[in-house]
Amino acid sequence: MPTTLHFPLLGEPLALDLVNTRVREGGSTRDLLDDPLALATWLAAQAARVRWAGAVTPADLKAVRALRDAIAALLAARRVRARPPRAALATVNTALSAPLTPPQLTWRSAGPRMRRSPDAAQRGALLHALALDAATLLTGPNAARVRTCAHPDCMLQFMALNPRRKWCTASVCGNRARVARHFRRHRGAE
């Protein structure tokens, strides 16, 4: 699985990359966003798609993780054509309705400067961008193509633009399945 730092970045929509910050390792689920530094690292890896400046606080981490879990619940509900939990829908809608305070250009005697929004406004803008990507994904023409990797030890989600795709990556999970199939065939031949 391709990674930037230690996150599986599969080239999927931003909302899926966020949901994919929870992985299965050794049969248990591991949260890759386990501290503010991990979120800062993920944000740096996503710098081309999201704006963030400065340190990440525990409050930022808590808000992003709550939104990630809500998006995951909405994706799961969409996949099985069920109603999502109300709390998940409310979390995403709250992020979508966050007031955005863009940076301001100021001009002083030393010249122009960009004044960034306060931390809470920056967090709101981040949550809004993540929620908007999730809403666009959930309501878009490819929403039914979001799948979970077929490998039993993987929980990554991806957009299956090819209807035959069933692995998050052919080089990792697909290869694991081929190796296991080969092992089963040859083990029975002995």
Characterization of the model:
The protein is α+β, with helices and mostly antiparallel strands. It has six helices and eight strands; from the N terminus they run ββαββαααββαββα. The chain has helices at residues 14-19, 36-45, 58-79, 86-96, 119-139, 170-189; strands spanning 3-4, 7-8, 22-25, 28-31, 104-108, 111-115, 146-148, 157-159. Strands 1-2 form a two-stranded antiparallel sheet. Strands 3-4 form a two-stranded antiparallel ribbon. The chain has a two-stranded antiparallel ribbon with strand order 5-6. The longest helix has 22 residues, at 58-79. It starts with a strand and ends with a helix. The mean pLDDT is 87.
Give the radius of gyration: 19 Å
Shape from CA axes? Answer: elongated
Number of helices: 6
Q: Please indicate the percent range of residues in DSSP E strands (runs of 2 or more).
A: 5-15%
Strand order of the largest sheet: 1-2
The count of DSSP E runs of length 2 or more, i.e. the number of strands, is: 8
Spans where pLDDT lies below 50 across 5 or more residues: none
Considering DSSP H and I runs of 4 or more, what fraction of the residues is helical?
A: 40-55%
Compressed to H and E, one letter per element, the order equals EEHEEHHHEEHEEH
Computed structural class? alpha+beta
Main sheet: strands, sense, barrel: 2 strands, antiparallel
The averaged pLDDT comes out at 87
CA(first)-CA(last) distance:
32 Å
